[in-house]
Batch of 2 targets.
Target 1
Amino acid sequence: MMRIQAKNAAGFRGFLRAPDYKAIIIGGGPAGLSTALRLHQKTNISCSVYELRPEPTTLGGAIGIQPNGLRLLHRLGLHDTLLSCGSSHSNLVIRSLQGSVLWKQDIAGLARKQTGFGYMRIKRTDLLNVLLEAVHKVEIPVYYNKRLTAIEDNEDGVTVTFSDGTTDTADLLLGCDGIHSYVRRLYVDPLQIPEYSGFAGLSSLIPASVLPGSVASQIRGLNAMLTQEGMFMATTCTESDDEIFWGFSGQVPLPKSGDTRDGWEVHRKEEVEKSKSNLFGLLQNARGEWGSVMKQIVDKTSVIKIYPIYRLPPGGAWFRGRCLLLGDAAHAMLPHAGQGASMALEDAFLLSRLLEDQTRSLGDIYKRNAEEALYRILQLEKAVFDKSNQALQSTSTAWAQPEHGARDKDGSLSLNFAPFGFHLLSISPDEPSVDIAYVAKHLPPIKQARELFSNFALTLQLTFGVYHMPSTRALMEQTYQSVFEGEEPSMTNLLLLFSIFASAAIAWTPQLLEKLNSTEAEAKAAFTAYSRLAMSILDNHRPVAPSITALEAIGNLIHLLTNVNGFHVKVDVLRFRGLLMARAMKVHCLDTAKAREERRLKGCNMIEIEVQRRIWWNMVASDWLTAFWGGPQEGTYIFQPKHMNVNYPSNVDDEFITPTGVEHNFPLSTPTSMSAFIYRVKLADLCRQIVDTIPSILLESQEPEYDVILGLDEKLQTFLKELPVFFQLDPISIQQSREACKERPNITWQRIIIHFGLHTRLCRLHRPYHLEGSTNPKYSYSHSTCIRSAKAVLELRRLMDDEFTQIGFNPARSWSVMEHVFMAALILATDVSFNPNAPDAEARKAMVLATYQTLEESGEKSGALMEGIQRNMQTLMSTLRKRRPQISVSQPKKSTGIGNELNLAFSETTSNDQSTRELRKSVMVGGDEIAINMQPSQSGNRTSADDGIQSSSFISEVVTEQESWDQLWSEFLAVAPELDAPQWSSLLDDMDFSLQSDNC
């Protein structure tokens, strides 16, 4: 057997890898069975389960399983099976005795929206049967009629003795035997005795068929009625709604005799009638239809279960030697939280995760398990009961609370990692100042960290390009090594890692989620947690010292948060922080003659020099690009060319940059990992030149000569023509660069992004003239160029969906991409409205319809994105109505037909079979064939964890939003032709896509 003391500092590595180590689990309920299943899944520990009862049975009745429990059941592979057993109706309705609705909430829909999982009510027997079937399938033995009588714990193992004289020995003993645990009573903490709470639950299961059909049909979801003595509730608990569970919770004196451990059932007729009479007395003042329903439910009851509610005093031990308590045996909660089964599942997964850690002793694993479990329970009780847990907190000060950091007695860092997906109850945006121990505790395990890093390298790094990936990966490994050795990692390093992990989480791919055994909802929660941790480091009372690592992290956060909900103000703050830090480090003077001479005399690390160039030019390019983008910052920029002396980064792959120098600096005709970065800088410089040349347009002073516009257009067209062949989009160039793309798959994505950025600027340059150009030959070039570039933007957005399957980045999650798509669609829609009889009007309508659907799909990914678009449409319509009050929106003077087609498209996408959305359509526009994808983009595909996410009420909510969106489009397309060209241009100039919320 394994020779390891409970407090031995020896490693756990040998224990995990050996095939013949064993755990004894006392308790054959959900806690014990789920623990056995999870240990079987994730470790080499074999389990034997021992149950007191003579056969598989439960306390009866039904329980609720919260989203955190359903998430873990999904990981056990049991979620879908349970869905076919339990009831998932959405609403919770609380009524008064008079029948009025006091509160109503779509709890399942809300839970799905926030976590990806809903809420289920299921019979205890059905839950137990599903778990037992899974246990038997993997041949985990379960023994019944086993009453534990003795526990012997020594360095060779732990031996248990049962009342029938049989014994068993294993390496660890897990007490999953409920609040009246024999494991706790006999060994772990004999003085920890459950206390009667003064409350008891009366409940019963009745067939729905015994009730009139009109009554049974009303019992959907979770229904509660408040009485003077307690709460009466009723709910369906099967998938077919054929059984109804009702219960009453109130104060009941503790009986002087009887088996109070498991409660008791009332069978005799006189006892049943007495209990029913008492319940009728409580319900005598119940009014209205629901009062009648409750009385009929009680009247049809033949067996009543009475269960006394106990609680455990706080402060008891949860482990001793080789023995550990889980679930209610350790931390029984009052049932009103509805978290008993879910918290038992969380315990099972937490223990499994800790046992995977091969660097810690068994005693330390048990200690960390108790600390983390207690912390989760305190947080949960705080969320559910507000201040009801203050007594528990005050008596539990001996525990090292994770929120204050976890340190050993000698002060060294002692922490566990937080696996990806354990952030559904995420970091608070108002988190107080934190120390290294608290922050480092949220690092994912090293294996997951490597997967996240690789995903970042394949997705957002392609458009960010600042990191020197080999040295950054080495920094990550060094940081984790310092944690493994008990040293404090650098807070700056943690900042960088959390910025990378946040980027990887928001750029999740199905492949990443499969490797992490996670879901889309968990990825979103992880993004929120990682980004908030990074921001908490920056906002800490101890400022982050200027460094290259800090600048990289700040730049990455800016790149990330620009495209994510709720960070507009923080992005501006981050930009200024980055500028001030870079200036303090004199990065803007990096390549002056003096700096170069100092490097020659003193030496330098050329990786650091190259990274500083990337950092600087990334900040500069972002500043100049937004100066000619749209929005409140348009027409202004911060970085002045005359105030810097920094060379462009070398056009070379990271592998050719070493601390001693850059081995090669390839011409721009040679593709490297930096090619797209450099051309982004070149495009940004053109934007700066445009802003310097035509401030009059942006600042509404004197209009420039049209020849100036044509000259700037020529510069942009020259930039397009001079792109290297691998960044060109014509068929011949694509054919010529096929080998380069095969070697570097990221090129296809990068060339789309470069063309997307160019055509959005061409649209912006010619937009003031495009409508007038439809009738005035002088500006006809602007009209045709603006339309051509708008169509190119929409086509490039479609190409992004094609490349999504290759590089994994989902354009539907990018705010800036969808902003430009929306503007391009507006330009085309308005052009059709002004010129309904143009030769290609029908083709443009088709493009608008396709874009409408793309925006609709993207809105499903980002509610704030759709909110921002609708806000701008509403602003447009408000202004249109003010300027043309005589127009009747409901009866427009002129109809282009697009509004009707949008109504038809909406009807098809919400009413018809999914196959109606699988239409691919090609249209001829201006002589070029452009494929319009009428099916949902591959970015809209969902992992299996998303199945069943949308409840009926949630769908209704979405439909309502889409009807509003559809109505806005229809009104806009009807009214827009009434404006003249200058008014229209003025309206578009006032569009504001800045995010209003502040969720970080």
Target 2
Amino acid sequence: MSRKFGLKACVSLGAVFFLPMMVRALPPGFPSASPSSQVQSEAATPAPQRLSTDSEGGLVIPRLSRAPTLEEFLTMQPEGEAALAMAKVTKFVQRDPHDGEPVTQPTEAYLGYDDKNLYVVFVCHDDPAKIRAHETRREGFDGTDDDVAIMLDTFHDRRRAYEFEVNPKGIQWDAVWTEASFADTGGNFDTSFDTVWNSKGKVTSQGYVAWMAIPFRSLRFSSAHDQTWGIILLREIIRDNEKSFWPHISVNREGRLGQAGTAKGLSGISPGRNIQLIPYTLLNSFHSVDDRVAGGTPCPTPLLPDRNCAAFQNRDIGGTFGLDGKLILKDSLVLDVTANPDFSQVESDQPQVTVNQRYEVYFPEKRPFFIENADYFRTPIDLFFTRRIVNPTGGIRLTGKVGPYSLGILSSDDRGPGLTRDPNDRDLFKSRDYFTIARVSRDIFKQSSIGAIFTDWESPATSNVNLDRRSDFNRVGGIDSRLKFSTNWTADLQAVVSSTNFGGFYSFGENYKADVTYTSRHLNHTGTFNDVSPGFTTVPGFVTRPDIREYRDDTAYFFRPKHGPVVSWGPELSGHWTWDHNGLRLDTDYLPSLNVNLKRQTRISIFPYEEFRERLRPSDYPGVLDSSVDFHEHSSGLNVSSSPFAQLTLGGYYFWGDAVNFIPGSVDPFSKPYLARSDLGAGVLTVRPITPLRIDNTYLFSRLRTRETNANVFNNHIIRSQWNLQINRQLSLRAIMQYSATLTQNQPGNELNIFTFLPTTKNFNTDFLITYLVHPGTAVYVGYNSNQQNLDPALALGEFGSVARSNRLINDGRLFFVKVSYLFRF
């Protein structure tokens, strides 16, 4: 089977204090959300000067005497003194589907500023019956609604930009864009960026109007009196797969910011003194299984006289508090601190297939402190995977840009390892790990850079084996570079070394990586070489496989018809070759495909035949394999997705063929890894029966069967349904229900272990969350989570020290919490 397709409480006196504050006006710097009473009639307004560009083609943004309002544009043209004084931008040009052609629907943007805010108004003509717009939670519409956006490269270095985006209802989405995009560490957008700004939108009889006010204190830029920024304006028409930009951002050139326009006229502005404090208070109660005592304790029930059991831990009510702080230094550096952070409100991970995976499955980070400004630490080799920091007590981070230098420093502790220890061992139970990450890069040439990174993990006592309590450590350091050779060719290079002491054993290793990418309108190509030595280790990072030399190649060609429902189509060929450092061939993979992109966000990918060869060595299965085993696998598949209507998005894939069972049974010939028949599929259905309600449904399925008798090795099912109801702009309700099961012949009390050692597991989780979000940082969350598993009711421990399974579900965990936070800006 292709390795490319594994899916993807505080009621307290503090609330009495916070809640009245949250319903007051937005923080200082925002204009009133109500229509201005100072709007002058057009007849009384002097004729405006509409010269929007200077002699060099830069967009000159004028200073306004007052803030414009949404109402001044609802006739689809500016009315009133402030609106008429704004710079006007037209001539939007398509990037997709027809690069270089004019936008299909008339589009205008108006820009201006005052001492506190940058104002942007989009006037988008269209048939209102065809506009896709939903009342969702903040950042809940990405990829499903029509939208408009502005990108601001405030340091004008053509490397990093803020993006502020709204749908026709005025719902916000913001992110940070970086030109460098690494397949292993995420795309161009850092969507964890959340800041305070204001937006409104309204659908009219002729289209829609979107209004934004972006406070300068929400941006970082130099202290120069006269500012020059890079700027891009965007309109997206979802039904036609259309993205149009001003200026023209061609798909025939790599990146966006190198093609951006220049914004001038901004003078005498500053973020000002900017200190942000977000205190929170939390009240919660919980019930969960406590299995930290090694070997358990004697079972309390006389029915199990010779067994040890885990126990439940409970808290009826309890509270805590914490603080997040942000300090802006010299306009461009940001110092973030967090003390006793809590992430109760963070949404659970999207489901992925984790059964029978040879390597660790990547789950993206969701905790705000660790992913905000994560792009400052991102390199071609993923050396900082923040989910390694499980349960921090506090952390500090400094990020920003000084001249041509970008820097990022983060330090945090992690009490997670100690909390998993036996509470009776006070030394280990109180132990914690320490993480430090430092990175600096320097801009060179037009859009290139060189940099260095250092990561450090220290653990005073990580295992009972480490009896003398000497500190274990892992330190990684190296250099990297991004080189842009031309408008189409880029290269990302990195070389690092590691030094590790763990449990009294020392190792040293190297990792070298090179990505070369060609991007154009018709042809895209990426080649990646990665060399990981046997001794290389990164504890804070995500490198799953040492002792390999690998090369990956992906080439795709797109035909782009001028007319008809087909937006683009073409073949793609992916290849992967892996050897160890002794020259032994490990894996080879050839995957041809045909991709067809249609209007209404419809994509069809056909995978007629994948050939995959995989070699397992005795070192991969010590004590199980006596010699290397070579597996020859094949698969075929189909992937389809579409959004034919504003109320419906659907998709799915199905792959069938061969795959290795990496968790064999105990009976020959199934006691060693063996080749089996494989089925892997998924279905996704999103419906919006009414504008404020969105229902996302996901089903994942994977199965292995023996080749000889077609007997089931395992069946894995994951079913998830998520309901989001947006009552108004601030108040939303969310409910998530997820059922997952791995079904094998190893039923509780009858562990045959013929085909696999996997037990039969069943899990049902429900999660409810009420959110009142005024803006990022000021919010009230009320949540409840309950989990049920097929565990032994007495929590009797099984053969391998974990709680034994049973035939029925018991409630093994529940949590209720109320969390209140408030953003103070000084």
